[in-house]
Amino acid sequence: MSVLDTKNLSPRLLSSITALIISTVNVLLSLFIHPLLWYMPVLIFVITFIVTYSLYHYTLQRFIYRKIKIIYKFIYQTKATKKEEIFYNNILPQKSIEEVSSDVQRWATQRKDEIDMLRENEKFRKEFLMNLAHELRTPIFSVQGYVDTLLGGALEDETVNRKFLSNANKSIDRLVRLVDDLDQISKLESGKIPLIQENFSIQDLIKDVYEEFSLKAKERNIQLILKKGTERPIAVTADKQKLKQVLVNLIENALKYGHDNGTITAGCYAMDEGHIYIEISDDGPGIAEEHLARIFERFYRADRSRSRAIGGTGLGLAIVKHIIEAHGQSVTVRSKVGVGSSFGFTLEKSKE
Question: Residue 101 falls within a domain, yes or no?
Fold first, then answer.
């Protein structure tokens, strides 16, 4: 491959090649004009080379690479330090046009990714605000309706006044739970809630939560069981109270959406020497595949009408995700319509 075929030509080398070619052509022409004067070709070559080289090098450095430096300043969007000035004045001029083009293309790709991410975040933000407004509006309107009715004369009617006050109180409780859940998520995201690590048996904790929901499960003839082969106690290191909240949210969801006469199964599986996998499964209606990627988002509901009829703040799975991630672990979901759902998460095994 010849020098002229090389892509990575510096301004200095390009100027030298151009000056050499023009000087050689001038020398050959001078031989025909002054064939008897031996020093004329040498003189013409030297003068032409110096003038041509200086002109080309000046043009490349002052005009083309000045524009390139402006592009780099625009890309990085920072005030140049003295170290950066060294880069602009010494390192940058050594770069080829292809290298500069590659840098610009890489910058353009990064900017496109940033814009796409901002658009996606804006979409989620709008959805979140819309869902939050809806979640707040329902109990607020309920309270407002009951209070207006009572003030309109129903307060004196003993057959309805206590019932209306009781219903208004339930709506206020829902508002309090919603605000508490939002506050908890905000603290989890900001790291303001410290983790109190301790060692305990995860199976024992599951049994405690099962006991709390035993009456609700009995009412609908739903069995709460540990998967066979995973009953042997496994000690984990985690925040016990927060892990209890994770299990409460998952088992409560399974009870809400599960079928009567169904089964909720908890399984604990060893992954490696340092981690285990806990999974809460049900044989309920399942979740459609298009919802699985967003099921842990705040206020996201796969079946909005049925979810709101059942109750809840719509933040349970978001809290589960934040608590597990605060432990440095991950949470997953598997589901199929008509078969059921399984929510799982990893935990660190106790080293003691």
Answer: no
